[in-house]
Amino acid sequence: MNYKIRLATTEDAKSLSAIEQALFTGPRSEATFKSSIELDDNAVAIVAESNGAVIAYADVYKAYDELQLNNIAVLEQYRGNHIAEQMMQILADTGRELECQTITLEVRESNEPAIKLYEKCGFHRVGMRKNYYSDNENAILMDKEL
Ligand SMILES: CC(C)(COP(=O)(O)OP(=O)(O)OC[C@H]1O[C@@H](n2cnc3c(N)ncnc32)[C@H](O)[C@@H]1OP(=O)(O)O)[C@@H](O)C(=O)NCCC(=O)NCCS
């Protein structure tokens, strides 16, 4: 399939918010994405684009020497094409360029596709936060040395 991965721009904010609304509880608004892309020097967002449409995105936040994964999502009909894996590789390279030591993330205990993705990308389980999500599901904490 034909797609390219590039840095997000403020023009992508609407698409990113729409994808979060479709896939996640507590989605970020268009305005939140816009201001983070435009104004926050510690935030990096990338998108995969196909035929002019955003089909996937991932975003991170740099906190000292740690790169925190905020979210990653691929629209359902485009999954299984290694788009997420490629975006994770790009974010790891970004982290190294920003001189981060680790990438960290939280994932729902039941989210097997995401946990498998992170394990394939070299992440290890380092802990758990009980009742972390608003519906009381536990979060698995994972990280990867850069
Ligand atoms: C998790 C998600 C981002 C994966 O995107 P994707 O582009 O389909 O994943 P990839 O094709 O890059 O998969 C890479 C590897 O991840 C693992 N994986 C991905 N989807 C999987 C699934 N449904 N079941 C088991 N393993 C899976 C596999 O190891 C796969 O490698 P392989 O195909 O060589 O076996 C996607 O399912 C998604 O958007 N889910 C909803 C949003 C979400 O839960 N995001 C994570 C929030 S923490």
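qc> The pocket of coenzyme A is lined by residues 23, 71-74, 79-85, 107, 111-114, 116-117, 120 (CB under 6 Å).
qc> done
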